[in-house]
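Local shape tokens:
==================
===
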Amino acid sequence: MRIRKHLTPTFLYVFLLTGCDQSVPPQLSAESLVDAAVAEGVMPNSAFLPGASAAPAHASFEGTLLLETAEMSTDPAQFAKRMVLDRDTQLFPGVSLSFFTHGDRLVPLDRGLIRVGSLKTGGSYWDILVFPGRIWVRACRW
């Protein structure tokens, strides 16, 4: 699997967990994964649920995703203060996340709170929450 260097966390999540189908909002389409444009707005929760065409995953997955620190958009666009406790609230933290699948579940090796910002190991203000989730595919053609 090849993942773009600057893929946003939301797209990464959708890519791993949801695949594609006609009911997916355009911001989460297969084309958006390779497009250089940045998605705007908040994604609806329904975009992260199996749709009518959901089927069991075709293959297992085991691997580590390396996310680089990246500028992120927020809603509201600008927080009252960008810098909080000398940490940047508009940087998504760089993190390494390892996963494996078990049946219809994607299981992180490290789950719960992944401390990044609170340890002051990077420039981001944020820590990360990682939990197991379901996996499926949606009918589509790449």
In short: Residues 1-21 have pLDDT under 50 and may be disordered. The beta strands are 62-67, 70-71, 83-84, 87-88, 91-92, 95-102, 105-108, 112-114, 128-130, 133-134. The first helix runs from residue 9 to 17.
